[in-house]
Structures are given as structure tokens and as C-alpha cells.
Amino acid sequence: MTLMRITLAGSLLSATLGLLSGCATTQALTPEQCQAGNWTEIGYADGAVGRSGAYFANHVESCTPIPGSTPNRVLWEQGRQQGLKEFCTELNAYKLGREGYAWQPVCPLEDIEKLEDAYNQGRYYYLRQRDLDRLSGPYPWQYNRHGYGPYGWYSPFWRPPVW
């Protein structure tokens, strides 16, 4: 019983940390970051995690009410383009596919075929592993929005209703 509690507590802790780390990547800039105005560095950080050019609007929204801050789109975009060089690698594309993330069209077009091939290889492995996990589970049909089975219920001895 104690081992099960420890395992459950560990699972809850890792899920909580995962949620918190996901929140940390989408937080608004601090007032100090807005006032410092190192937009090339901010853009580099955004590019390194694969953010699109539309993400700059979030920075404008968070920095506009702060006195002494002026978001600079040109410097931010220069930094983002440098950060995208770190993000747009074949290894990273494979990892995104392997972990089940969607492909985001933020990378330059010159090497897009190699990146999409790497992503598709990772995605193939992810889908095969997901299907294997589902089939080896206790209920091969898994859950759907209505319950178990292909029709929303599960019963090995099901018969159609008699009207």
C-alpha cells in the first residue's frame, strides 16, 4: 500500500512540474525585462523555442502599460531569426514528432524538406508506440467520449435491443 502511495505521489509531482514548466514558457515579460528593452535577446529566446512572428503581439500587450518600455519589432525579429537557427534542426524536428507535438511552420524554407522528413520519422514512431500502448492496455478499444468500445460502451456479450 505504501509503495502505491509513493508511486501516485511521484506521478502527481511530475505532472504538476510538467504543468508548471509549460506555464513558465508562456509567461508575460516582467516589467524589468520590458524596461531593459533587450529585444534581440528576447527575440532569440522566442525563436529558440519555435515561436512565430505573431508572438510579438504578446510582448506588446504586456509591455505597453509599463512606463519607459518600447517594444522594438525589428530587433526582436532579428533575434528570433537567430534563435530559429537553434530550433530548426533535424534533431529537434525529430524530437517534436517523437513526442507527439504538432509541426509549426516557423522554420526557413531552404531546409524544410529535411526538417519535415525528420519530423515525419519521429511522428511515425510516436504513432506506432501510441497504438501499441493502446492495444496492450486492459481495454484494447480504449475509452472514447461515451465510454468503452467502438460504439461508446463495452460488453463482451452485447446484443442489440429488442424494440
List keywords for this structure.
2 domains; two-stranded antiparallel sheet; 163 residues; mainly alpha
What's the domain count? 2
Fraction of residues in H or I helices = 55-70%
Outline, from the CA principal axes? elongated
Strand content: under 5%
Q: What value does the Rg take, in angstroms?
A: 23 Å
Distance between the termini: 48 Å
Largest beta-sheet characterization: 2 strands, antiparallel
Number of helices: 7
Mean pLDDT: 76
Name the strands of the widest sheet in spatial order: 1-2
Which structural class do the helices and strands define?
mainly alpha
Q: Low-confidence segments, ≥5 residues, pLDDT <50?
A: 1-25
Q: H/E element string?
A: HHHHHHHEE
Total beta-strand segments: 2
Organism: Psychrobacter pasteurii
Signal peptide: 1-28
InterPro entries: DUF2799
Protein name: Lipoprotein
Summarize the structure.
The chain has 163 residues and is mostly helical. Helix content is 58%, strand content 2%.
What does this structure look like?
By secondary structure, this protein is mainly α. It has 2 domains: about 25-85, no CATH class; about 90-145. It contains 7 helices and 2 strands; from the N terminus they run αααααααββ. The protein has helices at about 1-25, 30-35, 40-50, 55-65, 75-85, 90-100, 110-135; strands at about 145, 145-150. The protein has a two-stranded antiparallel sheet. A hairpin with a 2-residue loop joins strand 1 and strand 2. Helix 3 (about 40-50) runs parallel beside helix 5 (about 75-85). The radius of gyration is 23 Å and the shape is elongated. The termini are far apart. The model is unreliable at about 1-25 (pLDDT under 50).
